[in-house]
Amino acid sequence: MDFRFSEQEEAFRREVEDFINEELPAGWTEGNIHWPGGYGTLEEFEVIGPRMAQFRRRLAEKGWLTISWPKEYGGAGRSNIEQAIFHERMSYYRAPGGDVATLIGGPTILHFGSDEMKKEWLPRIAKGDVTFWLAYSEPNAGSDLASLQTSAVEEGDELVINGQKIWGTVAHVSDYAWMVVRTDPTAAPHKGISLIIVDNKSDGITIRPLMNICGFHSFNEVFFDNVRVPKKNIVGEKNQGWYYLMVALDFERLVIPMGGFRRTFEEIVQYARETKHNGQALSRDPLIRNKLAEMAIEIEVAYMFFWQTAWMLDRGLMPNIEASVLKLVTTELSQKLASVGTAVMGHYAQLERGSKWVPLRGRVPAGYLDCISALVGAGTSEIQRNIIAMRGLGLPRK
Ligand SMILES: Cc1cc2nc3c(=O)[nH]c(=O)nc-3n(C[C@H](O)[C@H](O)[C@H](O)COP(=O)(O)OP(=O)(O)OC[C@H]3O[C@@H](n4cnc5c(N)ncnc54)[C@H](O)[C@@H]3O)c2cc1C
Hints:
With 398 residues, the protein is of the alpha+beta class. Helices cover 46% and strands 14% of the residues. The chain has 12 helices and 9 strands.
C-alpha cells in the first residue's frame, strides 16, 4: 500500500494551486464565511454569483468543472483521485468547484442516461451553462422519500406534474430541477418513481423562499401546478428512478469540502497562537491544546475516508457504504470543529457576524448554527447509521 500521490497527481495539485492563485479574486478566501460541511453559510447568491461567473468560466474552459468526465462530453478525462485533489484544493481556498449539475446530476446521466440525453445535457453542464437544484423532499417525504406524492401523468409526448417540493437549496438561482416524481401510483412505492429534469421557467412553477437559521435565503419551497415537461427529460427508464436516485445520493454524499476543514482548523489554531488570555497565549493552555490535538486527529481520519472513496471510484467500485461513512464522519466533524472553535474563542464566538470584535469574520458563530443542518441534508445521521448497519454489517432492517 502506497499512501503517496504519483508524480502526475502531484503536478496536477500544483497546477490547481497555481490556477487558484492567479484566478481567484483577491481576498476571497478570507472574506468568504462558508463553513465546511454546511450549506447555509453560502453567502447571498446574488452577491457571489457575478463575482464567481468569470472564475467558473475559466474552470469550464479547462474542463475542470467536470474533471473526471470523458473529454467527449467536455470533461478533462482525469482520474477520480485527481478530481478529489482538485476539490480538496478548491475547498481549501473556499473557491466554488462544483454544483448539483456537475457533481450529482451529470454523473448520474453519465451512468444511466440514454446517448441522446448525454449528448443534450453533459456538454452544457460541463461548460457551466446550466445549473440544477435537487427536488427530492416533500412536506411528508424526507427520510422516507419513497412515500413522495408529487405526480407526473403522461399526456402525449409530455408529463404533467402536480405537487410540492420543500427544502430545495438554491432552487431560486438555478435553471432546472433535478426531480423525483411518482409516475405509477399503482406500483409499490419505490417502483413507481421516475427521475426527471424540469425547466424552472416552465409555466406553473412557484418558488417561495425559506430563510435558514443563519439568516440566509438558501432553502425554498416549490409548487408545481400542471407543469408540462417533455418525456425525453426522464433520466434512464420510466419508473426506475428510485434505483438511479440511490446512486445520485451516493454521489451527493461524496461531495465533501475536505480542504475547507483543514483551512478553518488552521485558522483556529492560528487564533490560539496569536491570542492572549491572562497574559498567556491560548495555545499554551493545556485544555485548548488537548482539544486542538483531538481535532487534528479527526481531520486526518476524515481525509483517509475521503481519499479512499476516490480510490474506489478509480477502480470501478461504487462507494455506497463508504459514501454514508464519509457523509456521517464529515458532518459530525463539522459540528465538532464549530464546538472547538467556540471553546477556543469563548465569548468572542458568540458575537454576531459584522461585529468588529468577532474573529474570522464571524465564521465560527455562523458555522455553529449552520452545522446543525449538515447532519440533516443529504440524509440524516440516523439514516446513514441505518445504511451502515444494514448494508455494511448485514443487520436486519428492523
Ligand atoms: C441544509 C439542508 C439542505 C437540504 N437541501 C435539500 C435539497 O436541496 N433538496 C431536497 O429535496 N431536500 C433537501 N433537504 C431536505 C433533507 O433531505 C431532509 O430534511 C432529510 O432527508 C430529512 O427529512 P425530514 O426533514 O422530512 O425529516 P424526517 O424524515 O421526518 O426525520 C425526522 C427525524 O426522524 C429521524 N428518522 C426518520 N426516519 C428514521 C429511521 N428510519 N430510523 C431512524 N431515525 C429516523 C430522522 O433522522 C430525523 O432525526 C435539505 C435539508 C437540509 C437540512
